[in-house]
Amino acid sequence: MMKFLEKHLGKAWLLLVYAFLYLPLLFMVLFSFNSTRQDARFTGFSLRWYEALTRDSKIVEGFFLSLKVAAVTGVLSATLGTFAAFVLVRYKRFFGRTLFSGMVNAPLVMPEVVIGLSLLLLMVGAQNLLGWPERGMLTIILGHTLVGMAYAMVVVQSRLLEMDRAIEEAAMDLGARPHQVFFLVTLPNIFQAILAAFLLSFTLSFDDVVISEFLSGPGVNTLPQVIFGYARRGINPTIYAAATLLIATVTIVIVSYSVWVARQTRRRAREIAAATRS
Amino acid sequence: MHRFFRLLGREFVIGLPFTWLAVFFFLPFLILAYISFVEMGNDIHPFKPLWDSASGVLNLKYENYSSIFRAEGRALFDTIYLEAYGRSLKYAFATGLLCLAFGYPFAYFLARADAHVRPALLMMVMLPFWTSFLLRVYAWKGILADQGLLNQLLLALGLIAEPVQMLYTNVSMLVGMTYVYLPFMVLPLYANLVKLDYGLLEAAYDLGATPWKAFWLVTVPLSRAGIIAGFMLVFIPALGEFVIPSLLGGPENLMIGRVVWDEMFTANNWPRASALAVVMIAAIVVPLALYYRRHGQQADGRH
Predict the structure, then answer these.
(1) Would you place residue B3 in the very low, low, confident or very high pLDDT band (cuts 50, 70, 90)?
(2) pTM
(3) Own/partner pairs, B276-279, CB within 8 angstroms, 24+ separation
(4) Which residues fall within 8 angstroms of residue B81, CB to CB, at 6 or more apart?
(5) Mean pLDDT of B187-211
(6) ipTM of this model?
(7) Which residues, other chains included, contact A30 with Cβ-Cβ below 8 Å and sequence gap of 6+?
(8) What's the CATH code, domain A63-234?
(9) Residue B57 pairs with which residues in a beta bridge?
(10) Is A251 in CB contact (< 8 Å) with chain B?
């Protein structure tokens, strides 16, 4: 009885929640192909909103700006996050460790409004004192990296914690030089996590509105800022078209990343099996 | 100790992220705290210096804080700021409960699904999370509008006679927030429930517990860490939410994040915006610190 109930209730519940999670995505994909501005009735298939999208210079400019910002943020965040993860995992004692771990974790719980506001005050102060930096792409990148780094740190840290230190020691015993140990043993072991950290901070940056709103200057608008501006004014199917393109891209990237990870894991398992057999 | 990084210099490895955070996290926070204690200025200099070197007067202002708690001509604690803080707490708490109500059974059934379909099911939870949060919130605007999909559907089914207002109300706020934060609840719960030893449940059955009783007396207490982690992961970001009330809420659904923004850019009152932000930090950091003190490092399971 319980088994039966659990099986069917379980399936129904999973289905219900997945429907909830995917309804807005399906909604946008469907209505991006609508022939009119109508939001509730599909009046016919057309590509006019995609055409409108390519002609909208604000959206196109915002897209390329966001792409640049997210790429730089991703690289900076993954690098700094990896450093921070190494510090937290490998250096148990140094002056200011508590402060360090507090600072690196804090952006995870701080409201974005507070991060945006305090960074804006710093930038204004710096500009008054040094005449630099002008609010714009650079300041947005700095803000995004602060948050991205924290997430990157968490991802790399969990990988470093579960990594078997014995393989590094084995490499050293076999005469590997320190830099060889790092590049041939440690880095390949955490590379997957660093890539995940890059993807995560890239995505967070590409998606951020609040920090960008605080830190961007006049005429410098990231794609989410442009969309946010449109969205507050009302329904605009051009945004659905942008969303559809984004959903397609994300699906392709995530699925190929997962396939790559699964393949790597299987290959490693095979290699370990082969090594233990011989 | 890691040899390569020793070669690179322990000082460099620690110093690089440390300096970065000191400059871009700690220093801004100090500036924020400083400005929260000074007097508001004019358009060119939005705030006055704390120490007026010309007159030699220390210009320490507590009014930025006291005005949060008391407005002129009104009772103590009856201010628009505390109202917005209270509303933010209410929405964040309700979102946490709703996410738990939908997310717990979901995570439970997910954890009990066939082992070979679980990775795919889990990926399907994560996929919307990777697509733009802003766009997904925006979609709800189209779904919940008076002339939107849901109203049209209900009208067509004859369940309602005329459109029901859902957008710009508590309904749209809670739908939007639950929608966005549900994965944050599901993931820690799933991680916890998938490790649950089902032998314990069978033991409970053998000892005569009904499935319902076994669930409440065995499964739920064992997943307590996951429940707490999930709730915090939802509650904390929901508290400072800015985008969802801007898109799906009306003037009555104002949350504190928006109020800080308005003080800063509409009223141009930098000191008060800073004071509001400091109170916001305190509202988050104090409960977190208490929680960590009580539960120690076991709370790290949320990572």
Answers:
(1) low
(2) 0.87
(3) B276/B68, B276/B81, B277/A113, B277/A114, B277/A117, B277/A118, B277/B32, B277/B36, B278/B32, B278/B33, B278/B36, B278/B65, B279/B65, B279/B68, B279/B85
(4) B67, B68, B256, B259, B276
(5) 88
(6) 0.86
(7) A42
(8) 1.10.3720.10
(9) B52
(10) yes
Q: How many CB atoms lie within 10 A of CB A155?
A: 25
The domain made up of B79-302 has a fold known as MetI-like fold (1.10.3720)
Q: Which helix (H) or strand (E) holds B95?
A: helix B80-111
Q: For residue B301, what pLDDT is reported?
A: 41
Chain A residues whose beta carbon lies within 8 Å of the beta carbon of residue B242:
111-113, 209-210
**Which of A34, A49, A109 to mutate: most B Cβ within 10 Å?**
A109
Residue B6 has pLDDT above 70, yes or no: no
For range A120-145, the mean pLDDT: 89
Supply B298's token pair: 């076991």
Find the length of chain B.
303
**Interchain CB contacts (distance < 8 Å): A and B:** 242
Domain boundaries, chain A: 63-234
Chain B partners within 8 Å of A102 (Cβ): none
pLDDT for B21 equals 92
- Asked if the Cβ–Cβ distance from A24 to B134 is below 8 Å, we say no
